[in-house]
Amino acid sequence: MQIHPTIAGLRAALKDAGRIVFVPTMGNLHDGHITLMRKARAHGDCVVASIFVNRLQFRPGEDFEKYPRTLEADCEKLVAAGVDHLFAPSEEELYPTPQRYLVEPPVEHANILEGEFRPGHFRGVATVVMKLFSIVQPQAALFGKKDYQQFMVLSAMVREFALPIEVIPGETVRAPDGLALSSRNGYLSPAERAEAPRLYRILAGVAEAVRGGRRDFATLETEAMAELSAHGWLPDYVAVRQRIDLQSPPTEGPMPPLVVLAAARLGTTRLIDNLEI
Ligand code: PAF
User: Fold this and answer.
1) Which candidate in 4, 33, 109, 121 is catalytic?
2) Residue with CA closest to ligand 1 atom 2
3) Could you tell me the strand order of the sheet in which 2-4 lies?
4) Helix runs in 120-182, H state only
5) Is 261 near ligand 1, meaning CB less than 6 Å away?
6) What is the pLDDT along the chain (277 residues), one digit of tens a residue?
7) Residue 33 catalytic?
8) Bridge partners of 239?
């Protein structure tokens, strides 16, 4: 695997690379990322990963500073997964001057759910991904469905800018007890780690209830949040939404494909998860 700290070096190496498949990450790679890398291999000739902890998508007071940076261990995993090129720029390389030109997702995508609790987050994500797309110029890109709203926002961005990039989803990878793999799981104390799978169990309960015919979504959401609170969590939201645009589902008529999403704080760690229904 070639490691490129500079845009110029990466661009030179990718000349004549054939169909490029791109997997952007912020590093601290776990099996969820590695599953994406292996899937990428099946979609093109040349797999490019990136590792960059993007300051633009963190708000002051979030975990930008303490976000785990584990480049050496990440490289070993990427080599084992058969990745061809890693783009790992410094902040000076990617943002040599403050980034003033920004990609602003529409409020109905960016200010709901995660965006309500992390204002500006999706502007930061869309901006860095647009810039990475411009640098790597891939024909396909993979994003995990664990960040469901991110997948929706980036798919819409690619569609609305008519970028010639196929956006491919990766399934969420879970620990045997159901906890979705996430770099932030590393922040959990042993007691919190034991409690954490409750989030998944609660989502599974909501999904089961909806599959069983319940349509009182607001009640289901309130009950789920109360159960989290009763076990020491601070829930931001539990929400049943339409998969396509994450808006509230219709109250009558045919039901479109749904997803239930949640975010909640356990101690100082904020976890998110979702389940398609
Ligand atoms: O999902 C992530 O790790 C990040 O949001 C991404 C897509 C790499 C942009 O920084």
Assistant:
1) 33
2) 25
3) 2-4, 85-87, 46-51, 20-25, 140-144, 166-170
4) 121-136, 148-160
5) no
6) 999 999 999 999 999 999 999 999 999 999 999 999 999 999 999 999 999 999 999 999 999 999 999 999 999 999 999 999 999 999 999 999 999 999 999 999 999 999 999 999 999 999 999 999 999 999 999 999 999 999 999 999 999 999 999 999 999 999 999 999 999 999 999 999 999 999 999 999 999 999 999 999 999 999 999 999 999 999 999 999 999 999 999 978 899 999 999 999 999 999 999 999 9
7) yes
8) 261
Residues in the chain: 277
Distance CA 268, CA 63 (A): 10
- Is CATH 3.30.1300.10 the right assignment for the domain spanning 183-272? yes
CB 261, CB 239: distance < 8 Å: yes
Name the amino acid, one letter, at 158. Answer: V
Supply the pTM of this predicted model: 0.96
Cα 233 to ligand 1 centroid, rounded to whole Å: 25
Please determine, looking at this structure, whether the domain spanning 2-170 carries the CATH number 3.60.10.10. Answer: no
| Pair 63, 184: CB distance under 8 Å | yes
Domain ranges of the chain: 2-170, 183-272
